[in-house]
Write a structure and sequence with these properties.
The complex is a heterodimer of chains A (305) and B (272). Chain A is an all-alpha fold and 305 residues long. Chain A is built from 15 helices and two strands. Chain A has a two-stranded antiparallel ribbon with strand order 1-2. Chain B is built from ten helices and no strands. Chain B is mainly α and 272 residues long. Chain B has a domain of 169 residues: MetI-like fold. The chains are: A mainly alpha (305), B mainly alpha (272). Chains A and B meet through helix 1, helix 2, helix 4, helix 5 and helix 6 of A and helix 1, helix 3, helix 4, helix 5 and helix 6 of B.
Chain lengths: 305, 272
């Protein structure tokens, strides 16, 4: 139902453009308008990815790489137990962060959309959530160090309260710290799309459900949650792809004790093993695109904007 | 929305929301406080006196690498990215209002730009420049790398804006005899101005804070986030926090300024 309403303005634009009878004219204008975007994405997205695919078959030594057609880089990458463990570890991070951000993000968005009554207050609180996202990721990561460290805020508070005899070691430089920092960095990517979908839910649907005798919980599970699915899907795309691509959070927050695919690539790059990194990049890209394609089966992004 | 009384659900969720905000801002305020650490203080609480020592330390060139230079580069790069993002996203948004061959692939290419892991783009651009015999630099390769991150946001925002934009305003302008350019400049542009300012804010801040895509594409001279990223491994004094405080305050200033501009534009439109 919402879908039909959403489509109509775009459809009517197209209809009227056709009716005006300057089809060819306006077509040329559209191509010119789309040209800069096409050129930039072609040069800095498509070409580099094609280049990576090509280079992944090249030979290399400690100094440079040589055009060739070898499958060695793939055999070495996929044949190594370390690679598989690293992929599993990355997927573990993705799964944990996804579950936590989905649950936390939904409740935050739900609170903003359904419990804040004035739209001015809604905007203010939404901005409060958005502002940290517009500041530096690395600074936000580092800011956990004085909180979680051995002599950090959490440990010293717990010791003062007499709850623990010695500092907890696994708060910082551990998988726990990595997941916590990622949730801190990426939850907003879940809140925004869910908030967007919740705001478009017709409030009379909720009232109709209430009038029909549904309890608050039933309204939530039978009306709101199903309608929030597209927002959750878009948020999931953001969070999963960001976690799969992450190397800095894993490096800084695990103190070098944990690994991710991107971090493995980064290490290969600093050793100038570009073809090996390229082979890894192709595998990672294929995996990420498969995941996104899977999620896109649930949701049509163009309808949700 | 006609519940008269706040329910228990409201209070539980309000508490959850408050905790979430604390979770977002708590650690940031910790480094804000610790950046005023005394000269003998360390990376954690307690404060060992209060001083501006670490802020002064920031401006001694040898102490933390090239803070001034990297800030200048990041600032200029942010402005370049902002201008190009606003113009290109606006043009693409206008293009998507009509049907044209390749519209769907171009749309999905923009989405792909968001989901392709940033380190892959970084590596790819680095290798392309190397193979073409070009020297990577912050104003060429890193500039392009940043655009692959900011443009999809801009395009998606413009797409959403024009999805909700009623063509009747333009038709009214045309019926009154306005040319296409007049219709665009006097009717469409003022109406979408706040969104364009928002796209500009995204363009600037995303570029100013970006480092994963810059990693292999920055060339000889670092941008500010790369400088900070390097510092995380070898700097063990609160000067790191001082730098964090300065750049975060700068980001806050940019955001506040932009919001001010949006409110100002909105008010002026309401008055006229």
């Amino acid at each position: 139902m919402t879908v039909a309403v959403d489509q109509s303005p775009a459809a009517s634009i197209r209809l009227k453009a056709g009716r005006r009878g300057r089809r060819l004219d306006s077509n040329i204008v559209s191509y010119l308008e789309a040209l800069p975007l096409t050129l930039i994405l072609g040069a800095f997205l498509l070409l580099p990815i094609l280049m990576i695919a090509v280079v992944s078959f090249w030979d290399y030594d400690f100094a440079s790489m040589y055009p060739d057609f070898l499958t060695m880089n793939y055999v070495e990458t996929l044949g190594s137990w370390v690679t598989w463990k690293t992929y599993l570890n990355t997927l573990k991070f993705a799964l944990l962060v996804w579950m936590i951000t989905l649950i936390a993000g939904f409740w935050v968005a739900y609170f903003l959309a359904f419990h804040i009554r004035s739209s001015a207050m809604q905007m203010v609180l939404f901005l409060v959530c958005t502002v940290p996202f517009l500041t530096s990721n690395i600074i936000r990561m580092i800011s956990w160090i004085p909180v979680l460290g051995r002599n950090g805020l959490v440990n010293s508070t717990l010791i003062e309260m007499g709850l623990i005899p010695a500092p907890i070691e696994w708060l910082l430089y551990s998988d726990f710290a990595v997941v916590l920092a990622m949730v801190h960095l990426y939850t907003l990517f879940m809140v925004t799309p869910i908030f967007n979908t919740l705001m478009r839910i017709d409030r009379s649907l909720v009232e109709a459900a209430r009038d029909a005798g549904a309890s608050g919980w039933q309204v939530l599970t039978n009306v709101i949650l199903p309608l929030a699915k597209p927002g959750m899907a878009i948020g999931t795309i953001f969070v999963v792809t960001l976690v799969m691509a992450d190397f800095s959070t894993v490096q800084v927050m695990s103190g070098g004790q944990s690994a991710s695919v991107a971090l493995m690539m980064k290490n290969q790059m600093s050793l100038l093993q570009y073809p090996a990194a390229a082979a890894n990049a192709v595998v990672l890209l294929a995996l990420v695109l498969l995941m996104v394609a899977g999620i896109l089966r649930v949701v049509d992004i163009r309808k949700e904007l | 929305m006609s519940h008269e009384k706040r329910t228990l659900e409201f209070y539980v969720l309000a508490l959850f929301f408050a905790l979430f905000v604390l979770f977002l801002y708590g650690p940031l305020s910790a480094i804000l406080i610790l950046s005023f650490q005394g000269p003998n203080g360390g990376l954690t609480f307690p404060l060992n006196g209060v001083s501006f020592h670490w802020f002064a330390n920031l401006f001694e060139k040898q102490a933390v690498g090239d803070f001034g230079g990297s800030f200048r580069r990041s600032f200029v790069l942010g402005l370049m990215v902002m201008v190009v993002t606003v113009v290109v996203s606006l043009l693409a948004g206008l293009a998507f209002r009509q049907k044209f061959i390749g519209a769907t692939p171009l749309f999905y290419l923009s989405v792909a730009s968001l989901v392709v892991p940033s380190i892959i783009i970084s590596l790819g651009i680095g290798v392309v420049f190397q193979q073409l015999g070009l020297k990577p630099a912050w104003y060429s390769s890193a500039f392009g790398a940043h655009l692959t991150w900011t443009l999809p946001f801009g395009v998606l925002i413009m797409f959403a804006v024009f999805n909700r934009f009623s063509p009747s305003y333009e038709e009214a302008a045309r019926d009154l005899g306005a040319s296409s350019w007049q219709t665009f400049a006097h009717v469409v542009l003022p109406m979408i101005a706040p969104s364009l300012i928002g796209v500009g804010l995204f363009g600037f801040t995303l570029s100013y804070d970006e480092f994963a895509r810059t990693l292999m594409a920055a060339g000889t001279y670092n941008t500010l986030p790369l400088e900070i990223y390097g510092m995380t491994t070898n700097v063990t004094t609160p000067v790191l926090y001082a730098l964090g405080t300065v750049t975060t305050l700068f980001s806050f200033l940019v955001i506040a300024g932009t919001l001010g501009a949006i409110v100002y534009v909105g008010r002026r439109r309401a008055r006229s």
